[in-house]
Amino acid sequence: MVSGFSHLLKRGVAEIIVQEEFERLLESGRRLRLKQGFDPSRPDIHLGHVVGLRKLRQFQELGHQLVLIVGDWTAQIGDPSGVSQTRPMLSRDQVLANAETYLKQFFKVVDKERTEVRWQSEWFGKFTLADVFDLASKFTIAQLMAREDFAKRHAAGRLIAVTELLYPLLQAYDSVVIAADVEFGGIDQKFNCLVARELQQMMGQRPQQVFLMPLLIGTDGKHKMSKSLGNYIAIEDEPNEMYGKTMSLPDHLIMDYFELLTDPGQYPDDVLADFRQQLDTGANPMGIKKILANELVRQFHGPAAAEAAQAEFERVFQARAMPEDIEELRISFRKYVDHRVERSASNLLEVIAVDDRGTVHMGPVSIAHILSHYGIVKSNAEAKRLIAQGAIDLIYPEGTKVTVSEHPLYIRDGSVIKVGKRRFVRLVNADRKKRALTGAEKEV
Q1: Label partner for 422 (CA 20 to 30 A): which of 115, 173, 193, 359?
Q2: pLDDT tens-digit map of 11-21
Q3: What CATH number labels 6-213?
Q4: What phi, psi does 208 have (nearest 5°)?
């Protein structure tokens, strides 16, 4: 292994193809062109993307050049990458809007001064039908069907769009255009990267080396981190949210996150080995997980924000207190009161009136409706699932807490809905107006 580069070629690496050739390139002293492509299929970058970006930053610090490909064409096709279903095609406007957030966030990790940003539309925008035929003719259907997710879908009788078969060819052509020396990607991109090696050789170029990294498992502990699955930690998450999500990770993921998202300089292998030994011998994982959460918040928000997030977590979740800053949801209580509401328990009709202080007492009303209608959760079905799991609490202004069941409950102005362990929303009556003071009150 190349002296001085062992940590780069070992930690957070799934496979290097071909490692001996890659090591010779490093020893040559040449400034290598390092390629990584991102399809802006959804806005925002999460920690799963950061795994590769951190590795690229390490090579940038050795003087190598990052070529960042914005897949504004391939994003419109959609790469399933093991999800076993066709991805919907995006419009050009959707892709450009997503790309805007990507480009803003990339440079929180990689060095902008040593990054060359290229858009696929630079070359694919000039492609003719003859160019498409020429590119497609270089590979057979049998070669493309060797890709694992295509093969599985074909065997199961699931649809595979012709555009999806073109995806690996377009990604490969990117490597030809920029003359990539090395392509970086997750292990699920192995097939596409190898296609690029073949195409480069066909086009008279030296085949790129392939640097593959493990996939970061998301907060659900089962699937790779993905916005579509909702198991992600975004780098734009607020400090408290990022800290809380990290603390919610299953314990078996702690060391994977340290391996893939921290630097050997700050957390060398012997420190990680000590953490691993503590976990293996039954130590409480809370302390080690707090170190991880603090580190991740520090990376994206700074040390002060990390310390504040940790203090808030300890106050709210370990001391069981309410957060100091609670999101407010202003809704019209009157819309739930000015009509007769049927009570599910007694099948009676009741009209709720405004009391002499002008406070509207809402109810009975479906908490699932409030959660989904106002976007606190994604759908009515998700709200009902959380309620069934006992994950929704209603906290009244005087501090009484009730775990929400499927039955309607009364809600008062100032009530707080707690969703899961980290989300608090205070309901504020948007109809309420300050009562005018009487003359006597003014004199006092």
Answers
A1: 359
A2: 888 899 988 99
A3: 3.40.50.620
A4: -70, 155
